[in-house]
Amino acid sequence: MPEPRETALTPEHCRRLTAGMKAGEEGAWREFHARYFQFLMAYAGSRGVSGQEAGDLVQATYLRILRHVKAMPDARSLEAWMRCLLRCELIDRARQRKRRLALMEKYAHWQETREVSGQGERTRMGEVLEELSEGDRCLVLRSCVEGWSHQELAREACSTPKAIESKLARLRKRLRLKMMNNE
After folding, report:
1. Do 59 and 44 touch, CB atoms closer than 8 A?
2. In this model, does residue 118 exceed pLDDT 70?
3. I need a surface site. Which of 10, 74, 129, 149 has the fewest CB within 10 A?
């Protein structure tokens, strides 16, 4: 676990800092970054994440902090909350990786079982994927097979990562229902 900084925030200063972050004050965010970037990097390292992946994890944690920032009563609460957000991000990434691998295995199996001529029976996964619109199929394959992040997909689609997350969730549900019901 990362060591606490020698210049800990007073409760009053912590409340002002987090209130400033919530209000979107650039100075508050700069101070937050100066105080806590290394803390979060060290905590990511203590969770077994290293190098570039740790930096990416901290950046994603910053986005969660930005989305959910609230005034904190003291530095201890702030640090505990940030550690919780970083762990949540780490868990979400592991789940994403697991889903991506499962779909990649199904897709690889589909590729292996297709006949060279393309005229034979297609597997159910292939049929279901082909039933999707070109844009939806591209989105699913880029996310689950090629490993694009929600941020990359959002940038490509001129959308937001949350909109992409929602659309992918709906598409996965639709694919799952079609696969299970054999529609």
Report:
1. no
2. no
3. 10
Q: Where in the chain is the domain with CATH 1.10.1740?
A: 11-89
Domain 114-181 belongs in CATH node 1.10.10.10: yes
In 3D space, the residue among 3, 72, 70, 71 whose CA is nearest the CA of residue 36 turns out to be 3
Q: How confident is the model at residue 46 (pLDDT cuts 50, 70, 90)?
A: very high
pLDDT tens digits, one per residue of 53-74: 999 999 999 999 999 998 899 9
Query: For the chain, how big is the Rg over CA atoms in Å?
Result: 21
Burial class (CB in 10 A: 0-12, 13-18, 19+), 40: buried
Contact 22, 71 (CB under 8 A): yes
Structure-token pair, residue 98 = 């697991």
Give Cα separations from 25 to 76, 119, 176 (angstroms): 22, 61, 44
Q: What CATH topology corresponds to 11-89? A: Rna Polymerase Sigma Factor; Chain: A (1.10.1740)
123: CB partners within 8 A, 6+ apart = 109, 110, 113, 114
List where CATH 1.10.10.10 sits in the chain: 114-181
Which tens digit of pLDDT belongs to each residue from 85-112? Answer: 999 999 998 898 888 888 888 777 666 6
